[in-house]
Structure formats: C-alpha cells, structure tokens
Amino acid sequence: MHKSLLFSISVLCASTGWAQAPAAQSKLSVHWEELTAADFTGAIARAQGTCLLPFGVMEKHGPHLPLGNDLLNVRYVALNAAQQEYAVVFPEYYFGQIFEAKHQPGTVSYSRRLQLDLLQETTDEMARNGCKKIIIVNGHGGNNSLLPYFAQTQLDTPHDYVVYVAGIMRSAQGEPKHKSDPATDMHAGESETSMSMIARPDLVHLDRAPQESGADRARVHLPEGVYTGIWWYARFPNHYAGEGAVASRELGEFEARAWITGIVQTIRAVKADRESLRLQNEFYERSRHPLETPQ
Ligand SMILES: [Zn+2]
Questions:
Q1: DSSP character string of 240-256
Q2: Ligand 1 centroid to residue 67 C-alpha, Å
Q3: Does the pLDDT value for residue 18 go beyond 60?
Q4: How far lies 104's CA from each of 58, 78, 99, 188, 189, in Å?
Q5: What are phi and psi of 102, to 5 degrees?
Q6: In the beta sheet, which residues pair with residue 53?
Q7: Cβ atoms within 10 Å, residue 278
Q8: Which residues fall inside 5 Å of ion ligand 1, going by CB?
C-alpha cells in the first residue's frame, strides 16, 4: 500500500513535470517580475529589446476612485497590449509629477530632482538589461510635461537606447457620445471613471461621485498661452474635474479598446524603427565636435 502510494506520487510528479515544462517555455510572461533570469533573456529577445514602462501616480481621484487609479488603468492597458504584441513590462512605477495634489490625503509626491534621477536610473537599468527601446506608457495627465522633457534630456549625454513616450490614448473616432462636457472632463470625470469601470470595477464607488463638485472654479484669469503652476488648483481645488457619476461601461469598453490598440500600434512602430538610434548616435558624435558638423 505504502509502496504503491509512493509509486503513484512519483508517477504523478513526473507526469505533471512533463506536462508543465513545455507549456511554461512556450508562454513567456510579459511581467518583468514574473520571469526567471533565464527566461528574461529569452523574453528580451522575443520582444526585440522593446520594453514598456507604464507610469502611474498616487493621488486623489475625486470622491469615488482609488488613489492608484492611474497606475491600475495604465497597467491594465499596457499588459493587455504586451500580450497582443510581445514586450516586457516593467513593474509598478508611480514616481511622477503630482505636486498639485499635495493638499489631498494619500498623495505621494517626490521631489523634482528625484523624479528625474529615478526615471533616468530606471531606464538606464532597463537598457543595461537589454531594453534598447523603452516605451514610457503614460497614465497620468500630470506627467504630460515631465515625460517629453525627460525624453528631450536624453540628448544631453550619449545613451545606447531610445526613450519613446506614449500619451494617454483613451479617445478615438467613433466613440460613444459623452454625457458631460468634454472640455472639463479632465480628472476622475466621465471618461476616466468609465475606463476604471473596465480595469477595476471593484474599486469604483459610483454612488459617491456626486459627493463633491468637479466643476471648474475658474479663479485665475490670464491670457491664453500664459502658464502658471497654480492653474489646476485655481480651477479644480477638490482635485476632481468633470462628472464621474455619468460614467458607463459602454464608454469604458470603447476607451480600453482604443488605448490597448494604440499601445499595440506603438509597440509595432517602435520595433520597426531603425532610424532613431542611428540618428541619436550620429547626433552624439557630432555634438562632441560641433565645428566639424557640415554647414
Ligand atoms: Zn487619473
């Protein structure tokens, strides 16, 4: 009895071992942190050195959405896209620009210097591990100035990799009609809340959305084209812009599909891009001795 039980256990182990090994090899995870060191090498090769850095933040999202809303949504679309067009996805990253929400509970706001240093060291480390094409997938509107600036600063000193920035791509042609004014639907409003209803419906408290006003208070008046940092607080002191209560799964499904499609197309275009790195190298070389640059 005892012997036959041992025999059946060893047969069972052997058979599951045989059954699982080929499956595990053929299906490489897109999650950086889920790969073994050996599988990571294969994953980078399969991705052709293309990696995603989904970029969220920790901040209030009106009275009805979670603090990590941008991180949860951007990872949802980035992971789905990478499964369609293979790329390695970096772990959770939420160290962006969010000074304007420091007056609200739960906001995690790093200094300007640390934001740039951490992002540079992160992309440097990604590149050292074979990610020669890094797509920063932005999920947070407060990063809209930071990320192109970071990409521009890559020209300062030579790098053997290229940084691409993909903006938020929730809207597209043919989207369902919105119920609220798109001009002020900017943060935790109809559009973003609809997207969250797809990515993490369990964290959306739609009934709480009307508890605060997401209306534009319009308290500073300056000519168009003049920027000042307090503009957001002047308009939306509750850190809520729009009407989350009118969100719908129908709009969310459209937005999720549009965003995933946009990232898939971005991954394909980046994989096909042979020019950016070549031109970067030419530029770095000429930058070393500008007087020799042909005029
Ligand atoms: Zn958000």
A1: -BS-GGG--HHHHHHHH
A2: 9
A3: no
A4: 11, 28, 10, 14, 17
A5: -65, -15
A6: 136
A7: 11
A8: 70
